[in-house]
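Thread: "does anyone have the structure for this chain?"

Original post by V.I.:
We have the sequence but no experimental structure in hand. Need at least a predicted one for the grant figures.
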Amino acid sequence: MPATKWDSSLTAAKCELLSYSVSPNDTQDQTIVRGYKGLSYASAASIKAVLDAETTVTSPSIDGVTFSGTWRVDKAQIIRTESGPTAGSHEVRQTMKYGLNLSCMSTVNERLIRARAYPIEQNENSWMYYELMQNEENKKWVNLSYAAALAEYQYLWRYYDNDDFYTPPEESTKINVREYTIINIVRTFTGSVVMVLYYGGYDVGTGISFSLSGGNYTVAVGKSYIVGVSLSVGTPPLSFDKWLPTLTEITNPLMETWYSEENDGSYSMYRNLKETSNKPYKKVRTLQYAGMARVYGLPSALDNYVYIYGMNDEDVVIYEHAKFRIGNDVYRVTADCSGDYYDPNDDTTQWVWKPSITPVVTAATEDLVDAGESNETQVYFEAL
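Reply from O.Q.:
Generated one for you, tokens below.
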């Protein structure tokens, strides 16, 4: 079989569409796999040189159909064909992704992976706690070049403060900011800071200012702000659309940031950003013995009972076998005990429980209660 039967170069007329895919939720995420079949094995070296040099393809024509735009080459393979009418030849398969790798993070390549909000607790004790809400957003930015991933990462992995941006008070002094940067206002300053958004390849406006007393945004010492973006729509030919930075207050931010290489050679930047509410809400747990239970009155050594008050509910029953501690002494309840309305000498009115206990009251318990403030010695139940 003569070697001249097979093509020695990648002929556009013989380019076949092997597959095409697009994400319905992201039309920028398009992939083409094209193939050239019947290639001479003797031309493998020259074909490899062509593939090595081809990193982008503009408006590729495949099976007579032109796919507009610029496509970046993801992967190219030379595969030997062992069967069928082209047996003994080679096939080139080339996978292409739509669009060039981008030079910065922006709303164009931002993707929301997950967002959720959930409560977190700050425990005061076993029965009362403070609840705050935490909002968590996990985002990624796709199709970044390696250089862009390195550059953008520096603006995402850390918190900035106004000292990082502020140079004395000439308002004409401008600084570049990236979207998603978090700025903490750590101390007072005079004048304004003018921020200009960095968006590689996009038109940006002259910037916005922030200060303690005015400007586009008024900020406060001790608060944190995250840089966003807004589009200022212009009217051609006198003006054109411009991207401008914004500032939005963010409370108690926590973040985790990383980037990684994808199969197509591009890089994706990831950030998990948490924001915690400032205002806590007091909540209590409905627990059987979890009030502020305290010893009522003055127990005496060798008593086989003790008076207790301060339970959460008048209907609470202290059940047989319940276990509690007064100081370092541990007592076990020997029979079910309900509360009773107690009015000793008209001095005070309380719902009081009088459980029978074993062992009997120790001298250490008597001394502890005698030495403490009246009716304030804590009873710690094991069963919460």
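V.I.: this helps a lot. The mean pLDDT is 85.
O.Q.: and Residues 294-381 form one domain.
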